[in-house]
Amino acid sequence: MSDRLPKDFRKLSIQERRHVLADTYQLDNEQLLGSGHADELLDLADVMVESAAGFLPLPLGIATGFIVDGVEHSIPMATEEPSVIAAATYGAKIVARGGGIATTIDDPVMTAQVFIEQANTRVAAALCSTSDPSALNELAERLKQSTDAVIPAMTERGGGYRGCDAAWLTETQLLRIQIHIDVRDAMGANVLNTVAEQLKPVITDYCGGRSLMAILTNDALQRRAQAEFRLPLHALRRKGIDSRVLAERIILAGKLAHEDPSRAVTHNKGIMNGVTAMALATGNDTRGLEAAVHRFACRDGQYRGLTSYRLDNDELVGSIELPVPLGSVGGAIGFHPVARMALNVLQIGSAGELGRIAAALGLVQNFAAVSALVAEGIQHGHMRFHAHRLAYQAGARGSIIAIAAEQITAGGVFNSQAAKSIVHQLITRNEQR
Ligand code: NAD
């Protein structure tokens, strides 16, 4: 028996790949069942990626009670982290006491880049001139016409060409031409890549040289969403801490994430706990989203937290701004049944609405985490979830999981030995009945 996969692994059917994997790595039944017990999902996996060998059944949960722009939403979230959905629902409940979250959103403009080497230096200088825009205007007219020809449907639905700019990159001696496109309800990566590829000859025809590459940038600085909540101090009530003191500590925590990049990384990770989980549930590209968000977080040269808090009279005001390169059509979104289910649960009809909810969710997720951190700490809530996992790992299934988790929490010893002993007793007691 070989301990390596055959060279033609990718050419096998998905069922054959799974047999080969099982033999090669001695996979047990639980591993095989867990990675592919439904034939139709195996077929789906097989058409989504090359060399598919199963699928990952990540929990899909629903955070409830989000009042966004006056409408109540439930938010589907796919995540492996235990406390994320509970924290979102908890935060939404508190924020709803003040009327919920108000949002705004920019137009869904994404940017394609074409990099030219050995461009005509005279033309490049004219394109990059800050005093005379005539060369850039001339190129812009050509790019607009070509874009309209490449993506006529996008222009018809109200999106399409929105402008261009040029920059000279001194280290690499490359001329960068950027084309800005309104992608309406798409995330836009494929749309932009198509435009960039098709417009290469138009650009080299104008400025000479040759294209090094043509691709979208995931830097989605122009496609941002903003969210804000206002919460009367009396609505901020939390056990064991005065509301005004809590608000002041939340505000200080926001300032801390603004000042200290190392704190900001964790602060923003917590925001993305929610936003990424919703992006994943809706079939969106989570890497593009996260790259855009973290780039935005250091737009002034230092990595900073994305939320801020202040007191206004007797109200705590929380706000967030972040880029939202998310689609409600395209990619895996209209294709994957779970993504379609998630969009149905969200009850939204456009990428703009999804972006607004992403901002609201990010803000609430941060509010929930920071309020816990500056009050009793987050470990208290986390251990309750950890106890469920310990019980499962120790062999508990069905109704025994919750009972065992409760006993583990009550005992206060969170390790596998304690969990095994509790689960063993519960199973034995059940068998004796
Ligand atoms: P897509 O290629 O599916 O294009 C969107 C399609 O939806 C277009 O054909 C468009 O005409 C159609 N459409 C229908 N109704 C629309 C509406 N109301 N608004 C807008 N378009 C509408 O998807 P995409 O969004 O261009 O690309 C997203 C995919 O590209 C993701 O799967 C992503 O992972 C992948 N990708 C990402 C990168 C990157 O981020 N660097 C690179 C390559 C590919």
Average pLDDT figure: 95
Strand order of the largest sheet: 3-8-10-9
The name CATH uses for the topology of the largest domain is 3-hydroxy-3-methylglutaryl-coenzyme A Reductase, Chain A, domain 2
> What is the CATH architecture annotation of the largest domain?
Alpha-Beta Complex
CATH domain class name of the largest domain: Alpha Beta
Strand percentage lies at 15-25%
Q: Which geometry do the CA atoms define?
A: globular
Radius of gyration: 26 Å
Task: Tally the structural domains.
Answer: 4
Unreliable stretches: none
N-to-C terminal Cα separation, in Å? 46 Å
| Sheet of most strands | 4 strands, antiparallel
Total of DSSP H or I helical runs spanning 4+ residues: 16
Overall structural class, as computed from helix and strand content, comes to alpha+beta
SSE arrangement, N to C = HHHEEHEEHHHEEHEEHHHEEHHHHH
